[in-house]
Amino acid sequence: MIDRLKTLLMGRASGEPDPVRKERMVKAAGVTYAHLVCTPETWEKLVAFCTPGGAFSISQELGLSPLRHCASVSREDGLVRVRLTGQELAEALFWTGGKTGPLADDALATRIYDELGTTVDQIDLEARDGARLPDIVIDARLGKP
After folding, report:
1. CA nearest to 38, candidates 123, 122, 111
2. Total-model pTM
3. In 10 A of CB 114, how many CB atoms?
């Protein structure tokens, strides 16, 4: 299986995702689950990003986002924790990588893609016994002075 995945990552026909994005999606697809921690608004926006046609489309009205079944659990600090399967994680990477639209949406999509990608990049496709993925946290904080 590892050889097949490596073969999928080789080469790049026109219209296919860049190799890094493709590798991230292949790695993500194999994850049992991961937890995303973010604000409720960020979660709602991610669901909208992952909806074909966008936030105000009939797809959104009909609840056709691939993330529609993910339940968010509110935390005491005002953030939500969402369990994502590998397929849902790959969908989030697909829909947020290279998003073009209003600047604020692009900024948020880039932030989500970068955080998901940083975590997914740690996956070793050849490891058999390893630690679970850490929570993927989107919550910018001030650094130490």
Report:
1. 111
2. 0.77
3. 13
